[in-house]
Amino acid sequence: MRKLKFKHVYIVLKKELKDIFRDKKTWIVTILLPALFIPIMMYIVIGGAESISEQKISDIKIAVIDKGNNQKFVNYLKSTGISIITDLQNTKESLEKGDIKAILIIPSDFGKNIEEGKNADLIIQVDMANIKSSNAESMIRGIIKEYSNNIVKERLMAKGIDPKILEPIAVKTENIASQSKMAGSFLAFIVPMLLTLWTATGGIGAAVDLAAGEKERGTLEPLLTTSASRLSIMAGKYLAVTSMALLSAVASLLGLFASFAFNKDMASLNADFKMSVTAIIVMFVTAFFTASMFAALELALSAYAKSFKEGQTYISPVVFIAIIPAYLVMYKMPNEIPLSYFAIPVFGTISIFRELLYGIINMTHISIFVFSSIIYVGISVYLAALMFKQEWALFRV
Fold first, then answer.
1. Among positive and negative, which fits the CA dihedral 229, 231, 234, 240?
2. Measuring CA to CA, how many Å separate 254 from each of 32, 91, 195, 203, 259?
3. What's the CA gap between 300 and 210, in Å, rounded?
4. CB burial class (10 A; 0-12, 13-18, 19+) of residue 379?
5. Which helix (H) or strand (E) holds 50?
6. Rounded to the nearest 10 degrees, what angle do helices 230-262 and 363-389 cross at?
7. For helices 191-201 and 347-357, what crossing angle results, to 10°?
8. What's the predicted TM-score (pTM) here?
């Protein structure tokens, strides 16, 4: 194989980027979608979480089946503001459909047992597959607990005992986390996965087109007959794919920052969330190494594929490679992430992103990530170069 010439690399890179940006779909898929995806996902996910967490007692509709004459307790329930639906034909069916969130069954001897100083039972039926129904169960339990406490207090007072004897210890909880840290912890749950996903997959379209696509169109052979070496051609195409992956990563990062810049009260985070310049630089460096590794792998797979369609089939699983580690890391706090994760591809990317969103810049972790990434990028580029060197792979039909 002839040697690498930077002049030829530059010519190939320039030609490929010109061809890529000539297609309007590239702008949409590589820049517009990543820039809009994170803000939209954050509004959807955080908005959904808010609708659940901000569920008010007045929003809860329940059915009460009173098998006795327990009007006193029913009136207490109504006084809390909870909505009691009474004209239902089939309460269980209404619960399954989500029309009501719970069914409260009051046994016939409930009032009698309370009056006689005995224990009484209540049954709450809920649909645990429905998150709002599950939350309603917790709220109803709280209401019943308060009613139960009032009964206990009345019984103690009737016997001349101070009800405070039941609460010898008063506990107060104080949150020491700042608003910025709270916002960062929330964002660290989903943003690292989305950033990694766009960084890893941003170059897929270009990779498939620049190797498998050219094979199918019959434009690769003429390119290989030019004075440029195969290594130079591969390097030019690789840099073009890496550039597209980085553009996707930058677009998704800009989308993230724009979300806060244009709406500082987004999702009730009161977005006191800030990232230092150093953290932003580290984030871009992390994205660079990740994009460089995936771009080489995607180009190698595309060079091996016989056609554009086959190239898409080979490269599509790359999405799962990016998503699976994200799920394994997203539930770990930064101090719980094993040191080895920073040396594993994708795991290291997501772990660094999580730390940065928590406001942590750990130079040891960053060094491990950078050093291991250089090795992985080198191996990936070697594989891509190997594919362009092997005629049996490059001219498969």
1. negative
2. 11, 50, 11, 18, 8
3. 11
4. middle
5. helix 33-53
6. 140
7. 140
8. 0.71
SS3 43: helix
SS (H, E, C) 228-255: CCHHHHHHHHHHHHHHHHHHHHHHHHHH
Tokens of 256: 């993230």
Identify the residue with better confidence: 21 or 381: 381
> What residues pair up with 124 in beta bridges, in sequence order?
104
Asked if 154 contacts 148 with a C-beta cutoff of 8 angstroms, the reply is no
Structure tokens belonging to residue 20: 């890529």
What are the pLDDT digits (tens) for 139-172? 899 999 999 988 988 888 888 888 887 777 878 8
Burial 62-83 (b: 16+ CB within 10 A, else e): bbbebeeebeebbeebeeeebe
Amino acid at 158: A
Following DSSP, what letter does each residue of 113-126 receive, concatenated? HHHTT-----EEEE
Let me know: does 104 contact 122? Beta carbons within 8 Å. Answer: yes
Q: What is the pLDDT of residues 300-313, one digit of tens each?
A: 998 888 888 888 88
Pick from 247, 257, 234, 272: which is nearest to 388 by CA? 234
Token pair in block for residue 100: 């009501």
- Could you tell me if 249 and 285 are in contact, meaning their C-beta atoms sit under 8 angstroms apart? no
Could you tell me the CA-to-CA distances from 6 to 210, 374, 378 in Å, in that order?
19, 21, 18
Rounded distance, CA 263 to CA 39, Å?
10
Strands (E), the chain: 61-66, 83-85, 102-106, 123-126
CA distances in angstroms from 238 to 22, 79, 94, 377, listed in the order given = 18, 69, 58, 12
